[in-house]
Structure formats: structure tokens, C-alpha cells
Amino acid sequence: MDKVRFATVWLAGCSGCHMSFLDMDEWLIELAQHVDVVYSPVGSDLKHYPENVDVCLVEGGIANEDNLELILQVRRQTKILISFGDCAVTANVPAMRNMLGGAEPVLKRAYLELGDVGPQLPHEPGIVPELLDRVLPVHEVVPVDIYMPGCPPPADRIRATLEPLLRGEMPLMEGREMIKFG
Ligand code: SF4
């Protein structure tokens, strides 16, 4: 049986969901026997998201132009896209800045009003990605196949989501163990 082409993506999140992924400990060895990790901040050095990905865990909301470009590419090139954690599912913590009303007031608050030394706005086209006015959950930008809430989702939930996928089945995301937020 062909290995599953597996990816994980880190957008606007704290990486805690990826840390929880690593908490699967010895099951990662079993997972490695069934998947090829074709893109991931924790398992691959590839800079470009590849074609024909079977399963992708997406951590984080969509907060800037880079996030937006990557999630559109991920959707085009992935069969099963999983919103991985509360920041992907609801935008969660990164979306707290939405209350300030747009990218400009957020940047002014962070870099001018609260800047202790030499306050200035970051502006380096092509290097510093432009902020979007609002941080968005993944499903507001592209269709999502599976929602896996949790901040972070516990390792057992990640494993219980991935195991059926490795058998070619969709996981049943229901009940407290699978869909509890926070
Ligand atoms: S859901 Fe929680 S653990 Fe995951 S990226 Fe967001 S804040 Fe971090």
C-alpha cells in the first residue's frame, strides 16, 4: 500500500498544536511507517508546498498575506485539509487583535504607541508580509474537510483523527473527546 503523503502547516498560531503533535511520542514511529512527510515545520526542510498531498494538518488562523497565499496553495494541492486546533477552527487567540478594528490600528498600537526605542512601523515589501485587516479562521478562506478543535488538541485526539485516515476512512469527530474546545 502506498504511503500517505502527509503535511503539516504552521500559520498564525503559537506552535502549541505542533508541540501536541510531537506529544504522540512513540506513536510517531508507527505513523512514520505509514506516511511520507512531504512538508512540515517539524519534519521537513522543503520550502515549497508540494503537489498531491493526501492529508494536511493546518495550525493557526489566516493573519497576513503569506498565510493567505499558503492556505490557497494548500487547498489546491491537498485532498483532506484538517483545521488543526482552535486558532485554525475559530481564529482564537490571534483574532483578539480584530477588536482594534484593522491592520493599521494594530500596527500603530504595537509599534508606535508601545514602541520603547525608535518606534517605527515595519515595512519591507517582499520580506515582512502585510497584515490582513482581520485574522480569519481557515474555513472563512477555503473549504475544510475535518475540524479538530482544542488549544491545543490533545495528542490522543490527534492520533484518533489520523488513525482512520491512514486506513482510508474518515474519522468520526463527535463527543467530548474529539470536539472539545480549549
Ligand atoms: S490553538 Fe492554542 S495551542 Fe494551537 S496554535 Fe492556537 S493558541 Fe497555540
Q: What oligomerization state is this entry in?
A: single chain
CATH topology grouping: Rossmann fold
Number of helices: 7
Order of helices and strands: EHHEEEHEHHEEHH
Question: Can you walk through the features of this model?
Answer:
This protein has helices spanning 16-22, 27-34, 65-76, 86-90, 103-113, 155-166, 176-179; strands spanning 4-10, 35-39, 53-59, 62-64, 78-84, 131-136, 146-148. The chain has seven helices and seven strands. The protein is 32% helix and 21% strand. It has one domain: Rossmann fold (3-Layer(aba) Sandwich). The longest helix has 12 residues, at 65-76. The strands form two sheets. Strands 2-1-3-5-7 form a five-stranded parallel sheet, with helices on both faces. Strands 4-6 form a two-stranded antiparallel sheet. It is α/β, with parallel strands linked by helices. Iron/sulfur cluster (SF4) binds next to helix 1 and helix 4.
Summarize the structure.
With 182 residues, this protein is α/β, with parallel strands linked by helices. It contains seven helices and seven strands.
Keywords for this structure?
single chain, 182 residues, alpha/beta, Rossmann fold, five-stranded parallel beta sheet, two-stranded antiparallel sheet, 7 helices, binds iron/sulfur cluster
Layout of helices and strands:
Elements: E1 4-10, H1 16-22, H2 27-34, E2 35-39, E3 53-59, E4 62-64, H3 65-76, E5 78-84, H4 86-90, H5 103-113, E6 131-136, E7 146-148, H6 155-166, H7 176-179
Parallel strand pairs: 1-2, 1-3, 3-5, 5-7
Antiparallel strand pairs: 4-6
The structure holds iron/sulfur cluster.
